[in-house]
Automatic annotation (TrEMBL):
Keywords: Cell membrane, Glycoprotein, GPI-anchor, Lipoprotein, Membrane, Signal
Compartments where located: Cell membrane; Membrane
GO biological process annotation, one example: lymphocyte differentiation
Signal sequence residues: 1-20
Membrane disposition: Lipid-anchor; GPI-anchor
Coiled-coil stretches: none
Record domain UPAR/Ly6: where: 21-106
UniProt name for this protein: Lymphocyte antigen 6D
Species for this entry: Vulpes vulpes
SUPFAM superfamilies, alphabetized: Snake toxin-like (SSF57302)
Name of one Pfam family that matches: Toxin_TOLIP
Length: 128
């Protein structure tokens, strides 16, 4: 009974609200920085750089649910050419040349896995 209660409490904690991802959210002609908390469903920080020959480059940073990186800035010659960078760590879209991996474990995911492994150990080990 004690083990079952502990299991329920640990599952409730692990399934509780996850900490929101933080990304820079802004739009500018240069590398802008404006940290914000993302919506709960946002999994990626995205940076898009668009080429506008008469206006210069436009940098847009935001939080998104899904992101596909692209690299189509062909010498910044054609209007509308763009590049998209994606990352999943807090404030990882600070730099325009972000090299953050697109598939890292969020801290809440790592915590959930650790709790699940601990519970499995408690259930398999002999009772105290």
């Amino acid at each position: 009974m004690k083990t079952a209660l502990l299991l329920l409490v640990a599952l409730a904690v692990a399934a509780g609200p996850a900490r929101a991802l933080r990304c820079h959210v802004c739009s500018s002609s240069s590398n802008c920085e404006k940290p914000q908390n993302c919506a709960a469903n946002a999994r990626y920080c995205r940076t898009r750089t668009k080429v506008e020959p008469l206006l210069g480059n436009l940098v847009e940073k935001d939080c998104v649910e899904a992101c596909t990186p692209t690299h189509s800035l062909q010498g910044q010659v054609s209007s509308g050419a763009a590049a998209t960078q994606c990352c999943q760590d807090d404030l990882c879209n600070r730099s325009l040349q972000s090299s953050a991996p697109a598939h890292t474990l969020l801290p809440s995911t790592a915590l959930g896995l650790a709790l699940a492994l601990s519970l499995l150990t408690l259930l398999v080990a002999p009772s105290l």
